[in-house]
Amino acid sequence: MGKVKVLIAVKTYPTLSDKYDELVCTAGFLEDGTWIRLYPIPFRKLSGENQYKKWEWIEIDVQKNPKDFRPESYRPISIDANIRHIAPVGTENNWSERRPLALKHVHTSLQELITEAKDNNIGTSLAVFKPTKVVNFVWKAVERDWDEKKIEAVQAHQMQLNLFDSLEDTRKDFKLVRKLPYEFSYVFLSDDGKEHTLMIEDWELGMLYWNCFDSSGSEAEALRKVKEKYFDYMVGQCDLHFFLGTTLKFHNIAPNPFIIIGTFYPKKSIPDNQLHFDFD
Q1: How many helices (H) and strands (E) does the chain have?
Q2: 157 has pLDDT over 70
């Protein structure tokens, strides 16, 4: 494909990788409003000038990822890609600059999306989805530590890169991202009235949890704050859309291969004839 301009809209919470140590799934919109996935990218290992933010236009040199059959998947020509930062896209005027691309193609039927994903001629793996109704935001406890085998693989890779370091030095140098002790999900209805529960893997959610936990020292308080934003605020006050994506491993085998990889939440628009002013 060569050089492309991408409006970054998605960064998932980091996961461990045997080859790249740590990976972040990045996705965004091309200038015509179509999706592109940039993968694999070891985001936290990129040099400072190459680290990009969400809702920023960047220019990056990419090629089709030969190990990923999903049509939207491309990989940087270089792992530490030479990324040109173009311009941020802010939230002014209720996200007016973001809306034309983010809401250009909106799906309301999850079953249609699943059918498209399973169709070899379409293979949709990224989409914007508007739930008919969001019922709840829930979480469940999961393993609190990364798989030890993955940690060992990461450390072994680090030692190969730093031949003169001991294992102890490698463990000190490699700053492992903290694993989230909870899995978060939205419960919602699609336009056929069916209820669905989808996990959300947004980087912002993970960082919100850790920031709240670090400031309060309480997991219960951190969970309350996460729900306050992702349910009370996003559902109660915003026009919430989900950014959905499939995982390569489960795209062709899971009954529903989609997870929520990001959210789009401008404030709800209120028609003039529904405005209410209370001066008491």
Answers
A1: 8, 15
A2: no
What does R_g of the chain's alpha carbons equal in angstroms?
20
What is the number of other CB atoms lying within 10 angstroms of the CB of residue 261? 27
* Tokens 């994903």, located at residue: 117
d(CA 171, CA 191): 49
Helix (H, G, I), strand (E, B) or coil at 156: helix
Looking up tokens 């680290």 gives 51
Cis peptide leading into 40, omega within 30 of 0?
yes
Share of the chain above pLDDT 70, in %: 85
C-beta neighbour count of 7 within 10 angstroms: 23
Q: What confidence score (pLDDT) does residue 162 get?
A: 46
Whether the per-residue pLDDT at 27 is higher than 90: the answer is yes
User: Is the sign of the CA dihedral 132, 137, 141, 146 positive or negative?
Assistant: positive
For residue 75 the two structure tokens come to 């990989």
CB 86 within 8 A of CB 57: yes
Task: Give the pairing type, strands 182-189 and 195-199.
Answer: antiparallel
Q: What value does the mean pLDDT take over residues 73-94? A: 87
Tell me the pLDDT tens digit for each residue of 119-149: 999 999 999 999 999 999 999 999 998 888 7
